[in-house]
Design brief:
Elements lengths: L1 H31 L8 H11 L3 H10 L4 E6 L5 E7 L10 E5 L10 H10 L3 E5 L18 H16 L4 E6 L1 H10 L8 E7 L5 H13 L6 H13 L8 H5 L6 E6 L8 H9 L5 E6 L7 H4 L1 H15 L3
Parallel strand pairs: 3-4, 3-5, 5-6, 6-7, 7-8
Antiparallel strand pairs: 1-2, 2-4
Helix pairs in contact: 1-8, 5-6
Length: about 325
């Protein structure tokens, strides 16, 4: 009888392990190989125009005139990455350079509101990359900010080569916000990257996927997330817990502004408190946008959003 019980128990463990492995592989594909990954440009243009009427005409006009220019560089893994850049609206008195980083399944079109804010309202030069596997960039899969941070640093270096500014801010939204925070803790940051703005970024890939797994599939993290992280590590060279904004922020000494909507249920608002508390070195600010859902803080509060960013950057320049 005991042998039979042990046999059945071992078979149950094997079945659970196999099920977890299969579910983990599915989860990795589902999260990192989405069918739409910033390549629906007509749809993204329409969505962006609906949110910010007139912005596509603004961008197209400047692009047709050669003010916005396309560029490429070779990113991590040897993939060609695309971006666009433009000088400040008044180049002779430019206040610095802003690198604007988009979110999950987005591209350089999706946050033209921030590009216009920096270029026209704050008079910054702007660089706007398409992240790995997004938009017009090549790539194997979504990198969730971890290796993206290294690519953003390359775009920052390109921007510095163009304008030779000594003040640069990296500003990201959602996955772009996580990319920004992950970049902020690297030891070899160039001195001209002097400030960061995170808008609704997650505390780690593990935390975000655990939330998505519970919210979408009503499943706990174990064993699916553990298995998916192993698959990701094997395929792409990084794991879900390794890709941590919190861990990187603990090393960040440069100024950071954290923004999050208090009605965000995609990247829950408690993530921003984890992130804010993790940054124990250097200057930091926190603004919670009242009534705003995910990535909607600017849409809901454009004047206040712009004022917070402007005041933060003016403070950062004195530090």
């Amino acid at each position: 009888m005991m042998k039979r019980i042990l046999y059945l128990a071992s078979m149950a463990v094997v079945a659970m392990t196999m099920t977890g492995c299969l579910a983990g592989r599915y989860m990795c594909n589902y999260a990192l190989l989405p069918e739409e990954h910033g390549n629906d440009f007509e749809g993204d243009r329409a969505k962006t125009e609906l949110r910010y009427p007139g912005i596509i005409k603004w961008y197209d006009t400047l692009h047709d005139k050669g003010v916005f220019r396309d560029t490429t560089l070779v990113g991590e893994g040897g993939y060609k990455l695309h971006g666009v850049y433009a000088p400040a609206s008044k180049p002779a008195t430019a206040q610095g350079t802003a690198v604007v980083v988009h979110g999950y399944t987005d591209n350089h079109i999706c946050f033209l509101n921030l590009v216009r804010m920096y270029r026209d309202d704050l008079n910054y030069n702007v660089m706007v990359p398409d992240l790995h596997y997004h938009g017009l960039s090549e790539g194997r899969a979504v990198q969730m900010g971890w290796f993206d941070r290294l690519d953003v640093k390359k775009f920052a270096e390109m921007a510095h080569d163009i304008w030779n500014d000594d003040f640069m801010v990296v500003h990201g939204v959602s996955m772009g916000g996580a990319t920004t925070m992950m970049l902020s803790g690297d030891d070899d940051l160039p001195s001209y990257i002097r400030a960061f703005v995170d808008d609704c970024g997650y505390s780690s890939v593990w935390d975000q996927f655990a939330h998505n797994l519970k919210d979408t599939f009503h499943l706990p993290p174990f064993p699916v997330l553990n298995s998916a992280s192993i698959v990701c590590k094997s395929r792409y060279g990084w794991g879900f817990k390794e890709a941590s904004s919190v861990n990187q922020l603990a090393k960040c000494e440069k100024p950071m502004l954290f923004i999050h909507g208090d009605k965000d249920d995609f990247v829950p608002t408690d993530h921003v408190y984890k992130n804010y508390e993790a940054k124990t070195k250097g200057y930091k600010e926190l603004w919670i946008a009242p009534g705003s859902e995910h990535a909607m803080a600017f849409k809901d509060h454009p004047a206040e959003y712009t004022a917070h960013v402007k005041a933060f950057l003016e403070k950062a320049k004195t530090l």
